[in-house]
Amino acid sequence: MPPALTEAAEPQLRRLAAELLVVRASGHLADHQRRYPQWEVPNAELQELLEGGVGGVILLGGGAAEVALRCRQLRHWADQPLLLCADVEEGVGQRFEGASWLVPPLGLGRLHGRDPTRASALAERYGACTGRDARRLGLNWVLAPVCDVNNNAANPVINVRAWGEDPATVAALTTAFCRGLDSAGVLGCAKHFPGHGDTSSDSHLELPVLPHSRERLEAIELPPFQAVIAAGVAAVMTAHLLLPALDPGRPATLSAAVLTGLLRRDLGFDGLVVTDALVMEAISRHHGPGEAAVLALEAGADLVLMPADARQAIAAIVAAVEEGRLRQEQLEASARRRRLALERVADAPPDPMAAPVVDDALAQELVEATMETVHGGSALSATTRPAAETPTWPASGGVNLLRLDSCLQAPFLGPTAPALAFPGAAGLTPCLLDGLGPRLWRSDPDAPLILESLPPGPVLLQLFVRGNPFRGSAAAGEDWPAAIGQLLRAGRLAGLAVYGSPYLWEQLRPLLPDGMPAAYSPGQMGRAQGAVLAALGLGQGREVGHTGGRQGFTD
Amino acid sequence: MPPALTEAAEPQLRRLAAELLVVRASGHLADHQRRYPQWEVPNAELQELLEGGVGGVILLGGGAAEVALRCRQLRHWADQPLLLCADVEEGVGQRFEGASWLVPPLGLGRLHGRDPTRASALAERYGACTGRDARRLGLNWVLAPVCDVNNNAANPVINVRAWGEDPATVAALTTAFCRGLDSAGVLGCAKHFPGHGDTSSDSHLELPVLPHSRERLEAIELPPFQAVIAAGVAAVMTAHLLLPALDPGRPATLSAAVLTGLLRRDLGFDGLVVTDALVMEAISRHHGPGEAAVLALEAGADLVLMPADARQAIAAIVAAVEEGRLRQEQLEASARRRRLALERVADAPPDPMAAPVVDDALAQELVEATMETVHGGSALSATTRPAAETPTWPASGGVNLLRLDSCLQAPFLGPTAPALAFPGAAGLTPCLLDGLGPRLWRSDPDAPLILESLPPGPVLLQLFVRGNPFRGSAAAGEDWPAAIGQLLRAGRLAGLAVYGSPYLWEQLRPLLPDGMPAAYSPGQMGRAQGAVLAALGLGQGREVGHTGGRQGFTD
């Protein structure tokens, strides 16, 4: 047992422990604006933590302009350079309104099969755009790319967030993305090591098990990580996954075999190893907030993301050093890696008066390059389809039937969204289905929809489905193939739009008769809706807004 | 016909005309963030208009921190002090997230009947809070109080925005509100002259007719305006209403008889007369953008709010002076009134780094003072109800049936809102009814709800209903009294919460059996939900958030 620390050494050690934490904060300025108060510490505590040496903050919530103010404030509270990060995997606008919101990466993965050069070029621009937008907000660390190979269509948590379904595609596109990030002077983070692509449960809710051998991991899961490590990615994030072949006792996040053995030693990664959020149930259900942090560092992590309680984590790390469980030199090496990473990034504070900027050209090109339409029974990308053959939507009237997870969490479906406004302008009556409204489903497997509850007329079916964390598997309990059969037999299906999951699209597409207008976009944002509806003959020349009839000049 | 202007005089005249316009802009910094691009000019045009002398901007959209940045930007673009205003009738947080969001004024109007002293004191604090919050954002002109006497329960556009249902109450509370505004150094605006309280159609959509005599107007509609004018209100906003007894040809906004005859001469008002938004259909359907502005000035308005096209309005005003339709001296007098008003307000630019502040104590006291609960068949205000008699919600399970206008425009119903989370914690399954989902209504007048579409068990019914502009009359086509009868006969009604309209509450309350938990709040925000549900036995000790089960740490 090592000698007890001197009184002078302990504050230094506390500061060292604090430096290895990345705490969660709201992107809003005021405490009362926090959307998730149980995860986001109030400002007084946050300021105290930063003054005490906490080395990083992960932000969620707030618009682009507000987050720029927030980043200035956090920099001001800390007396050292901070890692300021966010989960902006699909452009900064995915999380912070006002910045560029891009189609999910899996769209480029699919494009890569048809046109690898174009897909790689777009992935690099995707990274450059994300990096530039992040810097404008004051963020210096982008928690992307997802390097998981999505080889399980039922994956509820990775799905469209992945860059592809095979290792070569993911490796090519994630390295291109990292080049783009680099060019903007922003750090990246490859996740979720050693690979979260083949899980069918959600680690936000439970601990998934990946039963693969080391050989299988080397063939499928590891190559993208190896590629971005070779390309110099600044950080790797661990997965909350149990891999019995590597470590039968501990999830990857807490496993020395995975982090120190596989990642550091075998793959030779010398950058920052950061855990995924320790508050996730897969970890927090089994370990207290202090112990989880100590276990992660013991396993070889440099940084601890979102400890359930930052003060407890600091105290537990200090105690672990005093007890000899952790060596202080290891923590110092981790802190050194953090500072080396920060030296790679530009350090000008953001200018909040600078209006948020969107890379419109890129966002639009991504939508067009990743959209798919049906043409004579076979799928074509939008760009290869003759423009003259764009269908014209039949006569006015009918139903605009939209399916989404929850109307209360649908940033893509504001009152002027094309998915509502364009069909509205063609006289279609909207009908929204989500998990919170009256169910349109009954138990008849051949006719599962209660069609009597719908307004009359032809049905435009728009399905917003993607595997979202916390929301379970995509469209569980909804038999859309049977519903499409029912609508076709009733002579009521007039068109199909799928936004998000390519797997649902591929399942439904073969069921459509020749000539039925149908299109797919991996994106769900308004821009994707506009392109898809235009391909269905519902977009051209339609003005969003006042013509919709329901739309006033105030809200 | 007067002589043509010299070349030197015309730019001066253009500037004078521009000074009398208040144009609409988004509260967001960037053009692509505009939510209503058809009403909100892009920044290049806005900057040009302000450089050209436009004297005011009305803002909508954006959070509190962003609007503070925006106000700095607008001040920077103008070379003169600007009127910066917003429709913040129910606290600044009604429009700009982060500031105080208060229950609608009609709640205090009802309290005034029980406790006039307390109601007046709260109205004054309401004004002071609104003024302070407005100044923090950089706004110097609050477009409130609504001085309309809501003496028509079917009024779709005023309703809970009014301070009462009789002239004495409205006069007492609006003057108290104005005292509060004054204390914060912010201008107010009495609206909608000469009184919009007895209309049953929405002037956003058509031109309502008020068939009352001058005597009736003097008895009911005018006293609150006279009271706030006597108290020194800075501005009066005109109504888009036809009052045949005063002017059979022109709506009040364009009527010299109303603005010059009644308001200026008879009521002796010497402050700013501003039109309601000229883009509203009641005006824009009948007059072009230039002509509407000229007609308003001709009638005696000083300022033109939201002309449909600012450049056309300026050109038309200049032409009207050149043609002798308008006298330049009149415009100069209006510009002088604008500058005099601006001299009354504090002129420090806002500090956007200052986090938004909420007057929690006032917001909570307003909720509690205006809430009503049923007790043994008679309504009591929450504060007079013995705490020990708060009911306990029966056993777990059942349905949380929520009715709202549109789930896509419900800022009061985020995923952690008490109306979802508290019943969720008691095991109730949510079912949301809005105008966009499948209908739960059928044509049977005795049993109008399709109960088979609901999950089983006792029903907590939560009705969010208020007369909103653009959305037509409250709960039209929904027979809630019959639905309550149906639920009672089926033995399924377990509790009732009404948020918003007191008229619906008063219609439903007598239908409830003794002992049925029921409560009403004029407010719809989370704070009101929490108080109402606590009164129903569903609130105490419940944590919003993680316990809800569906709630993750990200969105």
Outline the structure in words:
The structure is a homodimer of 555-residue chains. With 555 residues, chain A is an alpha/beta fold. Chain A is built from 17 helices and 15 strands. Chain A has a 7-stranded mixed sheet, with helices on both faces. Chain A has a 5-stranded parallel sheet with strand order 4-3-2-1-8. The longest helix of chain A has 22 residues, at 116-137. Chain A starts with 8 loop residues before the first helix and ends in a 20-residue tail after the last helix. Chains A and B meet through α3 and β12 of A and α3 and β12 of B.
Q: Mean of residue pLDDT of chain A?
A: 90
**Which parts of chain A are unreliable, with pLDDT below 50 for 5 consecutive residues or more?**
376-388, 541-551
* Spatial strand sequence of the major β-sheet of chain A: 10-9-15-14-13-11-12
Q: What percent strand of chain A?
A: 5-15%
Rg result of chain A: 24 Å
SS-based structural class of chain A?
Answer: alpha/beta
Helix percentage range of chain A: 25-40%
Chain pair with largest interface: A-B, 70 and 72 residues
Major sheet of chain A: size, sense and barrel closure? 7 strands, mixed
- The total of beta strands of chain A comes to 15
- Overall outline of chain A: globular
Oligomer: homodimer
Alpha plus pi helix count of chain A = 17
Distance between the termini of chain A: 66 Å
